[in-house]
Amino acid sequence: MAMLLQPKKNGSINPLKSSAPLGAALAYLGVDGAVPLFHGAQGCTSFALTLAVRHFREDMPMQTTAIAEVETILGGADNLEEALVNLQSRMNPKFIGIASTALIETRGEDITGDLLSIMQRRHELARTAIVYASTPDYVGALEDGWAKAVTAIIDGLVVPGERRQKSLRQINILPGVHQTAADIDQVRDMAEAFGLNAVVLPDLSGSLDGHVNAEFTPITSGGTKLEEIADMGEGLATIAIGQHMTPAAEALEGLTGVPSTVLSNLTGLAASDELVALLSRISGVAVPESLKRRRSQLVDAMLDCHFYLGGKRIAIAADPDLVYQLSVFFKSLGAEIVTAVTTTNHSPLLEKVPAKEVVVGDLMDFEERAAAAQADLLVTHSHGRQAAERLGLPHLRVGFPIFDRLGVQHRSMIGYAGSRDFLYEVGNIFLSLIKEKTPEDFASAEVPPFKVQEKRDVGQTLAIG
């Protein structure tokens, strides 16, 4: 069991975590026809927008209520109303997701009451689905904002009540913020292999998978449709991916009675087996041969790669669910987790990380501890590249944001196929560090001289050493 440490520092140097409002905005972007709205100052939105655009390399329809000095004192309800009306008239979104920021939350405004009053007065907003999630910057990190936004969507848009007539083929998938578009496609394909129709919320594989639209649209194109969200109560079961999705799964089960299962990890052989067994139980269908073949490929990849990962010293810095997912994966292949740094202490999974300690800190803590532990590989997002350069270590990019590599949304780490590809990626990093011997290496090597020992006894032979 890992010991959870939280160093007492006056400030964060080279921050590791991204804010909760940004996590909420990313979740809202997984809904079709959506516009995320930050209730706060323009700078809050600009910073989040910059990170999201650099990571996804796509246009982001993020908007702000533009709170200034006067509204900070007198209240921002008028700005919220004006922003909602302007968005409705100019962009005609199907869905607006509101995320609060530290500025509004610190003042202690009744945003829920303000929103209710606005909806009663402005009837033109009735044709737009609007939800609000409380996500102050000073509480939690990316995972927390994502989870709160998904829970708010479920509470606000799912039609409550248990269904007598269930869809025999529908299941609900609640992916975590650490799932890429390719990860979501991977889970959907595995569900379809059992004849199941997966409703994914949020679905970044539809809105932020890097496609090109026939014409420009100011709102999200693709993602979970509002009617699909409303009918999530018709599913046979709900599968949540990541411990931080537990509140959303519980909210959906409480509203509709649909039984839910939270899977903390989908990377590696054992985790993939757990998902496949669950899908088989839900569907009543035997495991298809295609998945058995993918499993066999993963086992072969593990045999090929364990020579290069066994005994390696790994340093990981990421959000809690991703730290747990990666640490268990590396540990299963014989590597040692010598440093684990995370963004928040809200997850019960942190105690289960296979390391001596987990530090809630920043990338300065990560770099210092990785150097002291003599790590062989740094595993974190793109902001860790300077630490890797200073330490002279290879850097495996994971999490959010990744802005110095292309195609991050098409990279999968879950399921049999995703775990196989990710394993080869890690194995190739260590393989590339092995310097092959050349004839020049042998020619330059010093050869010890031959020595002939004197014969001491009659029966003793000459010894060459």
Give a written overview of the molecule:
With 465 residues, this protein is an alpha/beta fold. It contains 18 helices and 14 strands. The chain has a 6-stranded parallel β-sheet with strand order 1-12-11-10-13-14, with helices on both faces. Helix 1 (20-28) packs across helix 7 (142-157), helix 7 runs parallel beside helix 11 and helix 13 (289-309) runs parallel beside helix 17 (415-432). The longest helix has 21 residues, at 289-309. The model is unreliable at 454-465 (pLDDT under 50). GO terms for molecular function: nitrogenase activity. Belongs to the NifD/NifK/NifE/NifN family. InterPro entries: ChlB/BchB/BchZ (IPR050152), Nase/OxRdtase_comp1 (IPR000510), Nase_comp1_CS (IPR000318), Nase_Mo-Fe_CF (IPR005975). Keywords: Nitrogen fixation.
